[in-house]
Amino acid sequence: MKFPTALPLALALTTLSALAPSAQAQSGTTPPASADAARDALAKKDGEGDQSALLQQTLTAVDKQYSLIRRKQVAVTYDITYSYVGEERIVTDLANGSTTLFNIENTSSHSVTNTFSVDYGLLDNLTGNVTMPFISRYSDNNLSNGVSNSLGDLALGARWQPFEAKRDRPGLTLTSNLRLPTGRSPFKIIAGSGEATGSGVGAFTGGLSVNRIVDPVALFGSLNFTVSAPAKNLWQVNGTRILTRVQPGKTVGFGMGFAYALSYGISTTLSFQQAISAGSKLRFADGLEAKTHMQTSSLLNMGLGYRISPKTTINLSVGIGLTPDSPNMTVGMNMPLNF
């Protein structure tokens, strides 16, 4: 009869199992509650997203050409940009082969541009875009000073991704943009009547962009080419002559930069942009034709992105002009409106 001796053994094992947790706690093998709380505080929370998502949002803020949205989705973005241009220009005019006017003109211009942009996913790899800017501009020069408030040039664009985006290879996007001359044309302004808020001509831009995300860094670059339509049937007084036609030169632009995710909610960007424009051809009422010099505009941009929610990131940027043809300074903010 050995069964009675087995019962105390089973009872003893059960008692030891019940006492084991308290014994481990006293010996220190179970992590204390404070350590668990610290680990939970440092861990990424549900819905917080990852650095790759933040970097993609940062690229969108730098330039929409680096991102697409899904089919039938809508994204609305608001941008506000302030720019300052200060320069000294030498104004001359010729009549009968001799100089009739020569003076130094000090000019300063302050512009605030409010831009609303709407993106719509036509396909998973094709996104359409409409951009509507509202411009307020103040200029002070020897001839006049004042404020102009007007709609700027509307733009219709499309972005197409020919290859499926994958994490282990660069993303390629082809871009196109049609600019409509809806703003106040600089070729139709009478001296002292206000400032231009548009380019005065329609233009088409085609290009490509490449980006590669290597968490926590995103590298990006772009190349584009712009052709403008001529401004015809003009009658603008320009010194002693009357301007009747302008053919803007072609423009080549490129840019490059990187974004760095400091954390799950903070990112920084550094980028460089440059545009080289051929000289414009001018025609006057008396038959004279002239051509302006080539212009080069370069900007160095620095930005900071702050994620205030899993779907909303606010981006601030400061730009410094590097050439005489560039704005002296730009300050901007970008934020999505689909909270």
Task: Give structural notes.
The chain is mainly beta and 339 residues long. It folds into 2 domains: 1-43, no CATH class; 52-336, Lipocalin. The protein has 3 helices and 17 strands. A hairpin with a 4-residue loop joins β3 (126-140) and β4 (145-151). It is globular, with a radius of gyration of 31 Å. Mean pLDDT is 81; it is low at 1-32, 41-49 and 96-102.
Key terms for this structure?
single chain; about 350 residues; mainly beta; Lipocalin; twelve-stranded antiparallel barrel; four-stranded antiparallel β-sheet; 3 helices; 17 strands; about 15% helix; about 55% strand
H/E element order: HHHEEEEEEEEEEEEEEEEE
Report how far apart the termini are: 77 Å
What ranges have pLDDT less than 50 throughout 5 or more consecutive residues?
Answer: 1-32, 41-49, 96-102
**CATH H-tier superfamily of the largest domain:** Autotransporter beta-domain
Number of strands: 17
Domain count, please report it.
2
The helix content, as a percent range, equals 10-25%
Strand content: over 45%
Cα-atom Rg, whole angstroms? 31 Å
Question: Number of helical segments?
Answer: 3
The first-level CATH class name of the largest domain: Mainly Beta
CATH fold-level topology of the largest domain: Lipocalin
Structural class by SSE content: mainly beta
Note the overall shape. globular
Q: Specify the oligomeric state.
A: single chain
Give the strand order, joined by hyphens, for the main sheet: 1-2-3-5-6-7-8-11-12-15-16-17
For the largest beta-sheet, the strand count, sense and barrel status come to: 12 strands, antiparallel, barrel
Overall pLDDT level: 81
Gross CATH architecture of the largest domain:
Beta Barrel
